[in-house]
Amino acid sequence: MFKFERAGGAIRQRDFRLLWAAQSLSSAGDAVASVAVPFAVLEVGGSVSEVGMVLAVKALVRLVLVLVGGVWSDRLPRRLVALSTFALGAAVQLLVALLLYTGHCRMWHLVLAAAVLGAGFAFSRPALTAMLRESVPAAQIQAASSLNSLTRSIADVVGPAAGGVLLAYVGVSLAYLVDGATFVLAAVFLCLYTTEVARGKRQDFIADLRAGWTEVRDRGWFLVNIIAHACWNMGFSAFLVLAPVLSRSEFGGARAWGMMSAGLGVGAVLGCLISLTWVPRRPLVVANAALIPGALPLLSLGHGLPLPVIVVCCGVSSLGLAVLNEVWTAVVSQSFPMEVMGRVNSYDSMLSMVALPLGMAVSGPLSTWVGAEATLSFAAAVLALPCLVVICMPQVRSIRFDRQGLVVSPS
User: Fold this and answer.
1) CATH class of the domain whose range is 5-140+151-199
2) d(Cα 186, Cα 278) in Å, to the nearest integer?
3) Which CATH number fits domain 210-405: 1.20.1250.20, 3.10.580.10, 3.50.50.60, 3.30.300.30?
């Protein structure tokens, strides 16, 4: 079913427009700053290893705190949680920009900033995802999520290029300044957000965490899906590790990797555009089927197919991932009580966060041992087979969208 009015319906919701603007600005700033981090480390005298350390600190803090963030986003007003993280992000990035500009920045400043930003993400991600459900009617969740992801995908393509220009012509401090400014503007939009739902009865922290896990465990379809999605992330991580290396050895340099990355970006944008209007009748069957072409970039790269073919495969893969993300958000948001959505989202995020770096850590040594082709083929199987299994499960197949885009028969 193609429902063009859903996108317009979501945009007509005032609080969704505010939330969309805030997240779009934050995504744009983060995309610009992502290019600046390695150069900031090098500017203060750091090495390549210390670049990795700064990035690892942010990822590790995010992983450790994401369940904590999920609990607190269900305990406190979610707008307050998200607003606090945006304000903190603004303060950190503007301070780092000032330190870099004045020449007083040290390595520990960058490490601390990475830790604070990682913590902010761990708290804001569950809160913002739950706020999306609060801001639109249930039938418009998929369109609203698609609009959010569309601007984020565009930012992921344009932002690094803009950051590169800033680095080349102005300096690394301005990239941090831009990110800090986008945090400020995002916080302003969230200040105007008014929707708030009643909180559930507060228990002690462990009891709240256990209650969230009980909601996840009792919905077998949700648990098997997030495990399959974690396997997808783990499998695709082999492509992210080996594609830059093979681009240099097989295709002559970074230009090939740039083309593959562009294919991923274009595919993500197209997938979001499709999800704006298309409402599949069997959402989880379609969503998991859309993930299976994620094996194509790995197989085409591993078997040495021409670069244009690999680029097209990247686009198809990313398109399918975008469709999965938006359909999944719509199903999950309608299938759990509002008061536990933060914890549910945090369990989902945690598995993804664990799987991607784990796959990256294994891919390099495995390719040295058995070769790139075998590694990519094995990773493609890890990626695709769990999705095939999930598609065949009766619990998954029983979940449907009705003509209004509402979930029926979740069990």
Assistant:
1) mainly alpha
2) 29
3) 1.20.1250.20
Per-residue pLDDT tens over the stretch 169-223:
778 888 899 999 999 999 999 999 987 766 666 677 888 888 888 888 888 899 9
Which residues are paired to 278 by β-bridges? 2
Phi and psi at residue 281, in whole multiples of 5°?
-70, -40
Contact 143, 67 (CB under 8 A): no
Kindly report, residue by residue over 272-317, the tens digit of the pLDDT.
999 888 888 899 999 999 999 999 999 999 998 999 999 999 999 9
How is residue 96 written in tokens? Answer: 């780092």
Neighbour count for residue 302 (Cβ, 10 Å): 24
- Cα separation values, 45 from 106, 112, 165, 236, 293, Å: 8, 16, 22, 33, 43
* Torsion sign, CA atoms 321, 327, 330, 334: negative
What does the DSSP 8-state code read for residue 278? B
Domain limits, the chain: 5-140+151-199, 210-405
Helices marked H in 252-371: 254-277, 283-291, 295-302, 307-335, 341-370
pTM: 0.84
State how far the Cα of 401 lies from the Cα of 333, in Å rounded to an integer.
13
| Nearest C-alpha neighbor of 68 from the set 48, 46, 90, 85 | 85
d(CA 411, CA 407): 11
